[in-house]
Amino acid sequence: MATTKTASPKKKQGFQGIRGAFWIIVICFLIAVCIYKFILGNPANFVNGDTNGAVLNGNLLGTIYKGGIVVPVIHTLLLTVIALSVERWLALRTAFGKGSLTKFVANVKEALNQKDFSKAKDLCNKMKGSVANVVLASLNAYDEMENAHGLKMSQKVAKIQQAHEEATQLEMPTLQMNLPIIATIVTLGTLTGLLGTVTGMIKSFAALAAGGGGDSLQLSAGISEALINTAFGILTSWCAVVAYNYFTNKIDKLTYALDEVGYSIAQTYEANHTDEA
Fold first, then answer.
1. What is the spatial distance between Cα 19 and Cα 46, in angstroms, rounded to a whole number?
2. How far apart are CA 129 and CA 253, in angstroms?
3. Of 43, 94, 163, 236, which sits with the fewest C-beta atoms within 10 Å of its C-beta?
4. Are 222 and 206 in contact, with CB atoms under 8 Å apart?
């Protein structure tokens, strides 16, 4: 029985994503702290320049600053979602290749129906990206099975399918990288906002317990902290949900295209070698 060597997928090209997502979070945190201290906490946003005093009438930046220490934490999460969304968009743009994915799949299937494997490989070389890499690995396995001896047709088809699956598994980690972080922020955004809400309400009730008109500033500050953190927590979770669902749908679309072409290659081989069955 002849042994065959599975063709490795084509070397990846272009932007593949950022693996050190921890540093993205650190950078976002530093930016959030700077925004909190120097923009939101600018004395010009408050009466008499006192950040501990009242906010100038209608000043939104000062109002957000009154959200308290939880504000930069939530902003860190929001900035991380934005940064990772840009990173995933660039990575998936590379993965999808240089042309229309739908058109590429149709052209490859047409080339396979015409038994023009040279054209199919040329399409992969021009398209590039994850789909093209996987299809090219399957086509290389097809060529190897053409010259393989001592194997039944069913075994050869299985080898082609195996090459396709292995190439797909090599591509999937790159496609899904950093998405778990975005998925985690979906929950963290809401929980952090809730934490800010609770701390703000604690300050409000403490001001009420103290009694007297002199505590009205503390009361309003506590309510402001609660509402600001609630709003930003919801906004962060909303952005994270939209980003996560958008990118998972894009990956699903790519995966369906891979399955469609992989099935076509295996079926084409089986149809062309029915006499070996």
1. 42
2. 14
3. 43
4. yes
For residue 55, list its beta bridge partners. Answer: 46
pLDDT tens-digit readout, 169-197: 888 888 899 999 999 999 999 999 999 88
SS3 labels along 179-209 = HHHHHHHHHHHHHHHHHHHHHHHHHHHHHHH
Q: Does an H or E element contain 21, and which?
A: helix 21-34
CA distances from 228 to 43, 61, 151, 233, 234 (A): 19, 11, 68, 8, 10
Tokens standing for residue 179: 């998405």
Q: Write b or e for each residue in 26-51: b if 16 or more Cβ atoms lie within 10 A of its Cβ, otherwise e.
A: eebbeebeebbeeebbeeebbeeeee
Residues 241, 243, 246, 249, CA torsion sign: negative
Gap between the Cα atoms of 60 and 66, Å rounded: 10
